[in-house]
Design a protein that fits this description.
The chain has 14 helices and 16 strands. The strands form 4 sheets. It has a 7-stranded mixed beta sheet, with helices on both faces. A 4-stranded mixed beta sheet has the order 1-2-3-15. Helices cover 38% and strands 16% of the residues. It has a domain of 236 residues: Aspartate Aminotransferase, domain 2 (3-Layer(aba) Sandwich), CATH 3.40.640.10. With 427 residues, the chain is of the alpha/beta class. It binds 4'-deoxy-4'-aminopyridoxal-5'-phosphate. The site of 4'-deoxy-4'-aminopyridoxal-5'-phosphate has 14 residues, from α4.
Length: 427
């Protein structure tokens, strides 16, 4: 078979970039193959450098909620760039962005912009430690919060032991300060707080865990997190990097009617440009430099292009009742999928909220990451490659959430279901 341009370029990329990629999931390692290289992307489609087009359900891993390269956002970036690309001194769009976030998310009284979700969660953790004058944090097994040292920590061997470094290069001393507990397990959480509560600065949680597919909290679980942190004087940090500005104006906290102390954002608020933000209670946020003693900074933070792209995207979502439309598209996809898989009679679980979804090949209820790990991975791989071959690009990993955008039409979704049906027939 003649080599295509993507695989030729991947061979070159591997010579000059570790693994050929700038972020590991892009290497398609979880599905045992090689990635394609993108030539361009528009609307619901992404086209590779060999000229093949796919219906895309990744949307750059979440930011592209209007679809790829929407004209309004691209035009706004061009306009703004002519006036300056980075200033490093305050400019009005930073204030507008802060006001917009505060307006949409009631728990946020003050907010600071940064450049990635990783920076947002890392900074929120430092702030919580500085505010509470405590060092330990609690995170959940299967939740991903970016790659800062305190958060690249996996569960230790016993429920109450401290975490283990989840990457070479993370000092054990950092991992010792991160307690990793199973998600959706109230008893273990109570035990951890009974033993360590006075030393815990914060719980950080993905508001709906979406880095192990898509997992939902059991009824009352998020309320317990709120209540237990209040009981012990710890802070509650909602990581809404993925869910924020995607599931509604106020993200999961809006859906669940909860008030975390701090929240982390990214993705959608940057319109596809590098962005992150963290915000919350004013008394906590005012611990940040230059007002308070907790240092946090960024040369490019509040970048005018990212602010303009993000604000334009938020404006479009609001103008077009975007969240309601995304939910309708998601529901359409879900009902078609249930019909198709019920007819097929194969075990599966389909979790969806609004425009985020995950299909699992398992008959287990998905309560936490242990259930996610028990799905049929071989089947997933075959399904992934079968769909890709037929022009449907799903996340190249069974642990990722799929995203529908406002550029997806019902007929895109129906075509996708037809592809699913054809692929499942063969495997
Ligand atoms: N938190 C969550 C919930 C995420 O999904 C991610 C990335 N997918 C991050 C944090 C890290 O964001 P970034 O990749 O922008 O650093």
């Amino acid at each position: 078979m003649p080599q295509n341009l993507s695989s030729k370029l991947f061979a070159v990329a591997k010579e000059v970039i570790p693994g050929g990629v700038n972020s590991p999931v892009r290497a398609f390692k979880n599905v045992g193959g090689e990635p394609f290289f993108v030539r361009r992307a528009k609307g619901s489609r992404i086209e590779d450098i060999d000229g093949k087009s796919y219906i895309d359900y990744i949307g750059s891993w979440g930011p592209n909620i209007l679809g790829h390269a929407p004209n309004v956002v691209a035009n706004r970036i061009h306009e703004v760039a002519k006036e300056g690309i980075s200033f490093g001194i305050p400019h009005p769009a930073e204030v507008e962005m802060a006001q917009k976030i505060i307006d949409w998310v009631p728990s946020v009284e003050k907010v600071r912009m940064c450049n990635s979700g990783t920076e947002a969660t890392m900074s929120a953790i430092r702030l919580a430690r500085g505010f509470t004058k405590r060092d330990k944090i609690v995170k959940f097994n299967g939740c991903y919060h970016g790659h800062s040292d305190s958060l690249l920590v996996a569960a230790g061997s016993g429920a109450l032991t401290h975490g283990e470094p989840d990457s070479a290069g993370v000092p054990r001393d950092f991992a010792n300060l991160t307690i990793v507990v199973p998600y959706n397990d109230p008893e273990t959480l109570e035990k951890v707080f009974a033993e360590e509560g006075e030393n815990i600065a914060a719980i950080i949680v993905e508001s709906y865990p979406a880095n192990a597919g898509l997992v939902f909290p059991k009824p009352g679980y998020l309320t317990l997190l709120r209540e237990i942190t209040q009981r012990y004087g710890s802070l509650l940090i909602f990581d809404e990097v993925m869910t924020g500005f995607r599931l509604g104006k106020a993200g999961v906290q809006g859906l669940e009617n909860l008030t975390p102390d701090l929240s982390c954002f990214g993705k959608v608020i940057g319109g596809g440009l590098p962005v992150g933000a963290f915000g919350g209670r004013a008394d906590v946020m005012d611990m940040l430099a230059p007002v308070g003693p907790v240092y946090q900074a960024g040369t490019l933070s509040g970048n005018p292009l990212a602010m303009a792209a993000g604000l334009t995207q938020l404006h479009e979502l609001e103008k077009n009742s975007g969240f309601a439309r995304l939910d309708r598209l998601g529901a359409h996809f879900e009902s078609g999928l249930h019909q198709l898989l019920a007819e097929k009679g194969m075990p599966y679980r389909f979790n969806r909220v609004g425009s985020m979804f995950c299909l699992y090949f398992t008959d287990r209820e998905i309560v936490n990451v242990d259930d996610v790990m028990k799905q049929d991975l071989d089947l997933f791989k075959k399904f992934f490659w079968g769909c890709l071959d037929k022009g449907v690009y799903l996340a190249p990993s069974p642990y990722e959430t799929g995203f529908i955008s406002l550029a997806h039409t019902e007929s895109d979704l129906d075509d996708t279901l037809t592809v699913f049906q054809e692929v499942l027939q063969k495997i």
